[in-house]
UniProtKB/TrEMBL annotation:
Main location class: membrane
GO cellular component assignments: voltage-gated potassium channel complex
UniProt topology in membrane: Multi-pass membrane protein
Compartment(s) of residence: Membrane
Name of the featured protein: Ion transporter
Amino acid sequence: MSKDAEEKQLSGIAALRDRLRKLYHGNSPAAFRFQIATILIDLAIIVFFILTPVLQETPTFLWIDYLVATLVAADMAGRLLASTDMMRLIRQPTSWIDMFILLTLLFPQALANLAFLRILRLWSLSRSGTLWRHFEMKRLRPWREASHAVVNLVTFLFVVTGFVYTFFFRNGSGFEGYVDAMYVTVATVTTTGFGDIVLPGVAGKLTAIVTMIIGITLFVRLARALFRPNKVFFPCPRCGLQRHEPDAVHCKACGHILNIPDDND
């Protein structure tokens, strides 16, 4: 390859990265439409992950599975090219989750027993700056922490439901078995314990114990987020503390003077 061709290729890659950076992280109308489109696609993918136990016996399942794999791979590549620090992005837990999800999509038969972990994509999406950038509106800002708590709880419920279905109810039970798994999960998390359906053996008891402990913790966190006084998100320039009282003048951690914008303006 000649030097001119190599320079032209490098300039093309640089132009592509700049374009992707503007789409993923920009504030222009085109970037806004692109970011909303990626969020909607992500939500559709998550719905597919939830319905996987019902769809996996259908003849079109593998086609949909590989299509979703293509979308996830394209999104991962786009975010990687748009990043100013690729290695930092790769080291983040959300990137590890996306890589694992991609593997389960590329090898759906070999990794079938781990497919229930795909719903962690919902948690990964909730940690995305692209998603919460659109929740910085004045009316929605106070609900950000509560939204995080709801997403954490919903993700946990579907992960446990998938685990219970895979290891306790899967034997050809289809949709009915998945509903039974969800029923057991919700009854366990809420400590209702009707007892009409229980998980057998020591493994079932240990699963119920872990589910109850984590589930109660997530319920408490959700209640705190819903009922405690609202705080604003404003990173302190000195110590980085993000949550402050709406009328705070000084950071309660380091005493630095804050300049929190007034939502009434």
